[in-house]
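<goal> How does this chain fold?
<body> The protein record starts here
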Amino acid sequence: MSIRKWLAWSGLCSILTVSVAIAAEQAESTPSQQDALGAALTAALQKQAESRAKLAQDLPVAVSEALARTFQAEALDKMKVTPAPLKGTYEVVLGSDVFYISEDGKHLVVGDIRDTDTGENLTDATRNGLRKTALEGMPEDKMIIFPAKDDKTLYTVSVFTDVDCPYCSKLHNEVAKLNEAGVKVRYLAYPRAGLNSKTYKTMVSVWCADDPLQAMTDAKARKSVEEKQCDNPVNDQFLLGQEIGVTGTPALVLSDGELVPGYVQAERLVAYLERKASMAKLEQESADIKETAKQ
């Protein structure tokens, strides 16, 4: 759920709370109904107060109060707030969303922070970490995996896919090239038409097939797939995709959590993975040299 939805929902909650309170005063309700309504409102206010108190433990008062004014209690409980790279601000993580609030609590910033020396997008680094952690919670045995050739995996790419998506089919036609280059492709389900759609039911059949890899290939070639039902992860994977920012398919998530939306030609993807690996190696070597110099 995006921060904008949290904000919109929070505002709606406030309006509904006031409306219900006014309606309770004006409506001809029984004493027991009024008591029940009063208890519900008291519980909601107590929950908000508890969430605010918990949030205020390690934060400036201005920050905790501003967040409490802006978000509903459920959001406050899920927040992680830490000092941001930009002086005078705090980084707020809510689900897969990252945003910032000034230390005086007056400004909420939805956007990215970049390091002007290195060009690194520091906000993306946080998002990538969140995606990586979220994906680690989905067992590989729940995915449909096309392994690297001879199981010699150099890179792993997780792909949120839809069997009725033309560009997903185009990418699937190049999976063999990716496997040849040492890329393990892990498929997760993301039926764009939503749960219980025709695509959703086809994807359940693919995951439940005796040979899921062949069923995936058949479905993407517009061949019929035998309808099957079983205990499957399609629903969970669809919700996971929404949680980590997937909005369309194919959506590729690299091993460091970077999200690459859309179709990427196999040769270009492999070249990009190789560059990332080289850069990561250089960064590690540089860090090791600096650490050695301190000793």
In short: The mean pLDDT is 86. The longest strand covers residues 155-161.
